[in-house]
Amino acid sequence: MQQKVSFQDLNPLTLLERSAFVYPGKTAVVYGSRRYTYHQFSDRVKRLAGALKRVGVEKGDRVAFLAPNGPPMLEGHYGPLYIGAVLVALNYRLSSREIAYIINHCGAKVLVFDSELAPIVRELKDDVPAVTTFVQVVDVAPKAEDIPGPDYESFLASAPEGVHRVELDSELETIAIDYTSGTTGQPKGVEYNARGAYLAAISEALEAVMSWRSVYLWTLPMFHCNGWCFTWSVTAVGATHVCLRRVEPEEIYRLIRQEGVTHMCCAPTALTSMYSSPAAEGQDLS
Contact, 211 vs 237, CB < 8 A? Predict the structure, then answer.
C-alpha cells in the first residue's frame, strides 16, 4: 500500500462505505418483498465478513458463490473483500464436473450456494476437499439437509462482534477470479484487481449516466464478469439494485413498472424473449 499523503489505493469496497454514509436510509437492494437500506446492506456485508473470518477464511483465501441474482450474491461482492479474501462467482449453468474443477483450481475454502442448486453440489461435494464450509441460501427451495452446513441467514448471525476489516496491501491485489465456460478445454480463470474493478465501476456509471436516482434491474448474471462490474457501479452512485432470480419477460415488465427501473443490461436472447413475449403487448419502456 502506498504511504503518500496524496495517494489513495482504489478499492470498490469504499464505494459501499461511501453510499452507506451518504445514503444510509435509502433503498439499496430490492428482492421480492425484501428491501434493504444502504445501512442494512453494509451491515449484512460486515456480518458476512465476520462469519467468513470465524470459519477460518483469511486474507487471500477464495470464497466461491453458486447462486442466482439475489442479495447474497450481491453481498458476496463485498463480504470477502472486507477481509481481503477473493470472490469466485460460479456459473451455475455449468456441469458439476466443471464447477468442481473451478473450485479445486482456485482453492476455495467456502462454498455459498443456493438450495435450489443442491443437486449440483451433491454431485461435487466429495470431490472438493479444500472446501471446509458449505453455506446454503434458502430461498425458493428448502434446505438440503443432507449437505452439512448452516443456512445463509444463520451464517450471517454467527458473525462475532467487532470490526473484521482486513486492508489490502495494494490496489493491485486480486479481489475476484472469473472463469470461462471451458468450451475450448478446462475453464480458465481471469483475475480482477481492486484498481481495475473500481475504475470499471466508475466508468460504467458515467457511461450509463447513472445517479442516486437510478434503479438497476439485474437481468445480467452477477456471475458473468461480476455483472460487468455493475455490482460495484450501482452501489458507487447510491442507486438501487433490483435483484431478479430468473430472466422472465412478465416479471421484467412488472418490475420495470413497479420499481421504476431506469437501467438494465440484456443479452440479445434476453431482449428477444422480451419482445416476443405476449406480455410485451402495450408495454411502455420510454
Answer: yes
